[in-house]
Amino acid sequence: MVDYRAFFAEKISEIKGNGQYRTFIEIERLAGRFPTALHHHKDGPREITVWCSNDHLGMGQHPEVVAAMQRSIERSGVAAGGSRNISGTNHTHVLLEREIAELHGKEAGLTFITGYAVNDAVLGVLGKLLPGVVFFSDELNHASMILGMRATRAERRIFRHNDPSHLEELLSAADPDVPKVVAFESIYSMDGDIAPMPELCAVAKRHNALVYVDEAHSVGMYGPGGAGMAAQLGCADQVDLLMGTFAKGYGTAGGYLVGDAPIVDAVRSFAPAFIFTLAMPPALAAAALTSVRKLRESDNERILLHHRAQLVKSLFQEAGIPLVSTESHIVPVLVGDAHLCKELADRLLEDHLCYAQPINFPSVPRGTERLRINPSPVHSPAAVRHFVSAVDEVWDDLGLPRVPAPVTGS
Ligand code: PMP
């Protein structure tokens, strides 16, 4: 007889043994005080600074975003009351969908309860409806994209990360008459690197492939009005379908798709992950709408984000602390060992009240375990200096290796 309890207990001890067990700490965000939060520690609550939040611009606590959500709750209550196609579509969803379509210069938009659901839904619909479709997928694509494609049983060919010439090779070898979808991200969250989007789009277009881009890590933070990396790099018109999330730059929650109206309507009509689930709460749509509008109106948050990220990177580099070479606002500090990475994070929290989450295999390859630091406009320069000197101190205590600081100046 199967002992289910023992079976799963064994599974957990296996991942605890090999450093893959995902830990978390219990925090409480404090309204108006991000990046400060309360850590519910075993010895009682204490204030910490969060360095690993996806609320990259602090919009989750922006007074106008908070007020928009409060007003919407007073008017509409807390939930949508139904799925999108059955009583759940609120006026605010429609306004939000128009806003994002306009932001990206596309015909139509559709919002989802999460960004994860967007990838699953859209790639699933493309895989199921396009006869004989072949996906061409970057090898480091996010799990939600991979699962969306796999669920369809459509053929999937993997191109080397950010490599347009490999994509060209694979597309050239494919039957010119079958439908093709090229799927990649604009910024990869683990290394913070940026895709060569114009080149990838040009290759895809030469082979008449549909271009699907996940801009989860760039919308709100890059491009004119926060329209993302494709807009920044001048190839937004080459992207057929763009997904974004409200859960990172916009500081709220939910995901979205923009693109040609018939394709977006097909997703609305065929995707189980859109159809068979509750609509996003109207208050969340109201908060997301305000956040999108604020970040369209002003570049301030974006400018500050990139200043802070630059400051963090240069201080780490001066201290000889190894970083994964990153071109974006994401700063991965390379530790290279799961246990030491956890120890570093534990010490930062216990001794310096700084919270940075270790990132381990399978999220990153073994031997490249890291702390992924997400600086934001609301981390003051003084907080940045405190954090870097805390990492510096623990780095020494753990005997971690340094790298030479880059030579700067003329
Ligand atoms: N795509 C990428 C590249 C992501 O990193 C994530 C979230 N980590 C998602 C999609 C899912 O977004 P959400 O959190 O809105 O579900």
Automatic annotation (TrEMBL):
Reaction(s) the record says it catalyses: succinyl-CoA + glycine + H(+) = 5-aminolevulinate + CO2 + CoA; 6-carboxyhexanoyl-[ACP] + L-alanine + H(+) = (8S)-8-amino-7-oxononanoate + holo-[ACP] + CO2
Organism from which the protein derives: Streptomyces orinoci (Streptoverticillium orinoci)
Annotated ranges, domain Aminotransferase class I/classII large: 47-390
Cofactor: pyridoxal 5'-phosphate
Family: Belongs to the class-II pyridoxal-phosphate-dependent aminotransferase family.
Single annotated GO MF: 5-aminolevulinate synthase activity
Pfam families assigned: Aminotran_1_2
Keywords: Acyltransferase, Heme biosynthesis, Pyridoxal phosphate, Transferase
Segments traversing the membrane: none
Encoding gene (name): hemA
Record bears the keyword Lipid biosynthesis: no
InterPro entries assigned to the protein according to its UniProt record, in alphabetical order: 4pyrrol_synth_NH2levulA_synth, Aminotrans_II_pyridoxalP_BS, Aminotransferase_I/II_large, AON_synthase_class-II, PyrdxlP-dep_Trfase, PyrdxlP-dep_Trfase_major, PyrdxlP-dep_Trfase_small
Recorded metabolic or biological pathway in which this protein acts: Porphyrin-containing compound metabolism; protoporphyrin-IX biosynthesis; 5-aminolevulinate from glycine: step 1/1
EC number of the protein: 2.3.1.37, 2.3.1.47
Organism superkingdom: Bacteria
Enzyme class: transferase
Acyltransferase keyword on record: yes
Protein name (Swiss-Prot/TrEMBL): 5-aminolevulinic acid synthase
